[in-house]
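Hi support team,

I'm filing this because I wasn't sure whether my run with magnesium ion finished correctly. The job status page said complete, but I'd like someone to confirm that the output block is well-formed before I use it downstream. Pasting the exact inputs I used:
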Amino acid sequence: MSGNESRLQAIYEITNREPFVPAPPESLEDLWATNVFSLSKMKATLPKDIFKSLEKTIKTGDKLDVSVADSVASAMKEWAMSKGASYYAHVFYPLTNATAEKHDGFISPQSDGSAISEFSGSLLVQGEPDGSSFPNGGIRDTFEARGYTAWDVTSPAYILETDNGSTLCIPTIFVSWTGEALDKKVPLLRSISVVNEAGSRVLKLLGNTEVAPISSSCGAEQEYFLVDSNFANSRPDLLLAGRTLFGKPPAKGQQFDDHYFGAIPERVQHFMQDVERDLYKLGIPAKTRHNEVAPGQFEIAPVYESANVASDHQQMLMTILRSTAKKHGFICLLHEKPFAGINGSGKHVNWSIGNSTQGNLLDPGDSPDQNLQFLVFCAAVIRGVHKFGPLMRAVIACASNDHRLGANEAPPAIMSVYLGSQIEKVFQQIQAGNLSGSDKKGKMGMGVDTLPDLTKDAGDRNRTSPFAFTGNRFEFRAVGSSQSVSGPLIALNTMMADSLNFIADKLEAAGGGSQANVLAVLKEIMDADGVAVFGGNGYSDEWHKMAVEERGLKNLPTTADALPWLKSDEVKALFSSTGVLSDVELASRFEVYAEQYILSIDVEAKLVSEMAKTRIYPAAMRHLTDMSAAVSSLKEAGISIDTSSIQKVADLAKTLTEKADALNAAVEKHDFADVEAHMQYCAGPLRALMEEVRAAADALEGEVADDLWPLPTYQEMLFIK
Ligand code: ADP
Ligand code: MG
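And here is everything the job wrote out:
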């Protein structure tokens, strides 16, 4: 079948497709967490003292008493086998955005030739996948293969059902034999612990005698596109790169703003229902779903949970979105920019910290004391964004997110913080020193008079800010849709811990956390770091100029600009002083992410050149052949005709092959001084050449006969469901 036939066939099949109708929805109560080995299930199945010991570890972060592992493993196995599982898997989170699993059977052959089912405490607690086969940034050579996974007690085990059967999944950390973290979970757990310590210090200095452990919370809003798999199968770029490398924008895009929150197409509703059913079984609290701005784009947002569990759940959510889409004849695109000229997808990471004694520490509240507390924690955020803006940019850096950041739809590549006008004003007053008047003690002194409505809405929304205060949390809006939330959460928790420790040090040096001392520290922070606060239009040219030239903020438009900041002294000091990442671990992360960046652009560049030469150029030539035959016949019949559009196609086809050849040659360059230079080459000349090939191809799409065009068009992929 030639390209255009498969394209027409796809349209035919899709329009005649029988929708996949999932089983009728069960009640939430019947579904909720049925596949999770939750605390309540443990309580029901474990001896009392064992349960108590485990619960203590989960709730207070105390060390796991290994002696309980055998009992837990046995109860877990019973439960899993009763649900039809015959395999278990240690699930871990390597330095990709993916999830990895090592599956083992419960079966254990005996010396007499029989077999029994076995799952001991040691098998639950520790596993041993190949440590060198996952990205490790040079920490492990291939001959030094040993790596360990170890059970993360704070994230519950669960059963994953697939068409091939059910597996007991155990969330684990992944470390090398030498003890370095090879995953995203270890540093996340460490960051949660350091922000707890630093936050508790500050709360005690503020006069709180009872301070429960502080945890960080995350609610991630996931955007995605759905495209019919029949179209996707005719687009190697969608299959291999997750985005269209070619494609002319459709006559109708998102200009009408008629898709956002519009009615959800029926097929997509079935899909969403199916996804939610699986999520509920896994105890993932999916709550909102709606259409997004672009045609074919949707969003799903679970209710926030503790950062570690939310991060594991986010990974599962991405997996379930992808696998369920397949069942429904879709492909789910989590890429940040699948279609040029149309909004891309982000993943807003809503983040806050809090505990059971003081509540949400980023809630402005309505009593003066709470406001003082809030202002301290909010100031810690401001300082963090200013000091570690480049780190925030680096942890969201990847080849795909570069297409989104800085374009006029997503936050700019300059990190700033939006507070909303009310809170921004309070901080301006603190900086000006007019909240510390002695005649305004207590309430007045805190400026509470100026904050009457704080618990309602701290200000308007600002869609243009990469990091915005939204009432009781910060929303990191620049995170990419394909990314793991762990990286951003690690950065936020760690910079927060650093700032809180800074504040605690200052207060201790000043003799305690009196109001006057606190206000003095807040003023100091505003004087040094207030430039990171910005409430205006982040998309505007004025901001780009002002941010860099007047405020000294960094504009890091590409991953090549951002990633090297992981090697900066500030970032190294941040992670090593807090113990969240050693220098070796941090350096390995830079290596891994840099390599991933280079590889993904390399794959795309090769694909652009190949598709241009083997699909688009032949279509242009067929068109030329048809047209010149038509011109000859017309000439013979004595009819004169303007051939300029034929000439135009010939010229474009020539440009296309020339540029594709140039790109082909450019990909072969390998002699770079260092990895930074290689990244810059990818971000600069390679991407520019890819764009040039694409420009010629997209222009051809507007000229070549539609029935010869080999690739499903934007119009078809976005609007036919
Ligand atoms: P919007 O699109 O208006 O930002 P959504 O309701 O789509 O709002 O998503 C908001 C997300 O923020 C949800 O995941 C929600 O659970 C989460 N969230 C709400 N409060 C907090 C909080 N205190 N800490 C972290 N996340 C929160
Ligand atoms: Mg949001």
